[in-house]
């Protein structure tokens, strides 16, 4: 870290802390993410899922860019030097009194769907407002510490995704889920940016399922049986008709509501993909603008 000057701490998680630093070589500011657990070797550092994913996925306009990897073999400390963004989505909407213009929300969601479409070889598994960064209206998906390859065999048993953004298949099966879990999480984020409130703020796993059923209603029993090795049969789900998403955000346009419903479809096989979401009428104007920009470039 001799080539960087630490300015201040900008974040901390369970496994790492993030500092704002300045490069002594080019004078630019970066985000330095330092792992709390020591790493045994430089090979282990390069083989970390997060490092592998960021190297493989970048550069992309909607994926946080890894600038440099710094490993201190004396202490086993690993630091990821990444581009510096302004804030995360949680910080952006926290404390806001007035909802954002829907056009701005769509602009952010189009970019989030682009990032999810780009990472189609892996699933992120922790899409939430804190892991979505913005700067000058550009959105980037970050924190690939929980990601897995789509080719890894289920069950994926370790802890995944923050509870409020966890898809039904993650709550109701013993690790049988796919990339569609990220689309569900993105749908929860979509609602939260529109309404400034979390959609399913469950206190525990069972309450999380109940919060989902309060809004979407209970799924058909045949769907519950579809989940492989389903834990759902251990729960008692009395038939319930949900209040519906439209009831919670009456100001939402028909196009945005349609996409929300498709992203928050209970059955992952029926849930829209990120690629199909990009083609949804909700993003018609953004697709045209994006196409114009690419043509000019």
Automatic annotation (TrEMBL):
Keywords: ATP-binding, Kinase, Nucleotide-binding, Serine/threonine-protein kinase, Transferase. GO terms for molecular function: ATP binding; MAP kinase activity. Its EC number is 2.7.11.24. ATP binds at residue 33. Residues 4-283 form the Protein kinase domain. The keyword Transferase applies. SMART domains: S_TKc. InterPro entries: Kinase-like_dom_sf (IPR011009), MAPK (IPR050117), Prot_kinase_dom (IPR000719), Protein_kinase_ATP_BS (IPR017441), Ser/Thr_kinase_AS (IPR008271). It catalyses: L-seryl-[protein] + ATP = O-phospho-L-seryl-[protein] + ADP + H(+); L-threonyl-[protein] + ATP = O-phospho-L-threonyl-[protein] + ADP + H(+). Its cofactor is Mg(2+). Coiled coil: none annotated. It comes from the Eukaryota. Belongs to the protein kinase superfamily. CMGC Ser/Thr protein kinase family. MAP kinase subfamily. This is mitogen-activated protein kinase. It comes from Cyprinus carpio.
């Amino acid at each position: 870290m001799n080539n960087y000057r630490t300015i201040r701490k900008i974040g901390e998680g369970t496994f790492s802390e993030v500092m704002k630093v300045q490069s002594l070589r080019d004078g630019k500011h970066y985000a330095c993410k330092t792992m709390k657990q020591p790493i045994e070797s430089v090979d282990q550092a390069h083989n970390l899922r997060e490092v592998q994913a960021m190297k493989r996925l970048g550069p992309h306009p909607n994926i946080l860019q890894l600038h440099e990897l710094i490993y201190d073999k004396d202490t086993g400390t690993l630091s990821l030097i990444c581009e510096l963004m302004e804030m995360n989505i949680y910080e952006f909407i926290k404390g806001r009194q007035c909802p954002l213009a829907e056009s701005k929300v769509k602009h952010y969601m189009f970019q989030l769907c682009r990032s999810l479409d780009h990472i189609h070889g892996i699933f992120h598994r922790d899409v939430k407002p804190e892991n979505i960064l913005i700067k000058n209206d550009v959105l980037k998906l970050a924190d690939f510490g929980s990601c897995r390859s789509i080719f890894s065999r289920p069950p994926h048993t370790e802890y995944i995704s923050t509870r409020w953004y966890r898809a039904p298949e993650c709550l109701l099966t013993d690790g049988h889920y796919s990339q569609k879990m990220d689309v569900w999480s993105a749908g929860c984020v979509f609602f939260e940016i529109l309404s400034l409130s979390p959609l399913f703020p469950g206190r525990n796993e069972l309450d999380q399922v109940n919060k989902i059923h309060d809004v979407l209603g209970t799924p058909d029993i045949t769907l519950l049986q579809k989940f492989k090795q389903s834990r759902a049969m251990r729960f008692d789900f009395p038939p319930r008709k949900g209040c519906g998403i439209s009831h919670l955000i009456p100001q939402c346009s028909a196009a945005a509501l349609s996409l929300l419903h498709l992203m928050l479809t209970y059955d992952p096989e029926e849930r829209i993909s990120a690629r199909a979401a990009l083609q949804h009428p909700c993003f018609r104007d953004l697709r045209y603008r994006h196409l114009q920009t690419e043509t000019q470039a």
